[in-house]
Amino acid sequence: MQEIESKYADKDVKVLGLITSDDKVDAIKVLKMQGAEYRNLEISESMMEFLSQFAYIPVTMFVNSKGEVVGEYIVGEKSYDEFAKLIDQLLKK
Predict the structure, then answer these.
(1) For residue range 9-47, what is the model confidence (pLDDT) as tens digits?
(2) Under the phi-then-psi rule, with left for phi > 0, alpha for psi from -120 to 50, and beta for the rest, what region is 60?
(3) What CA–CA distance (Å, rounded) separates 93 from 89?
(4) Fewest CB within a 10 Å sphere: which of 14, 25, 47, 60?
(5) C-alpha span between 66 and 63 (Å, rounded)
(6) What is the Cα–Cα distance from 70 to 36, expressed in whole angstroms?
(7) Domains of the chain, start order
(8) Is residue 77 helix, strand or coil?
(9) pTM, entire model
């Protein structure tokens, strides 16, 4: 995800991670080991309730500058190329 944020920085695309682990210290260590410099937030109870509707994590959603979800929710992992293709399509709209 760091590569995605770096590639699209000039297009004002941001990656935002949500920490869902109960062990936040361990989660932050993992993010640092992965070189994740993008913003990560601890989730609230209401956000955890929202995420519980999905059978798998990770869940990816694209949000525009108005805070509206655009496109479909993506459940499961995707490659860099798959994300880049999706973002390119959304930016064309």
Answers:
(1) 899 888 888 887 777 888 888 888 888 888 888 888 888
(2) beta
(3) 7
(4) 25
(5) 8
(6) 24
(7) 2-92 (3.40.30.10)
(8) coil
(9) 0.75
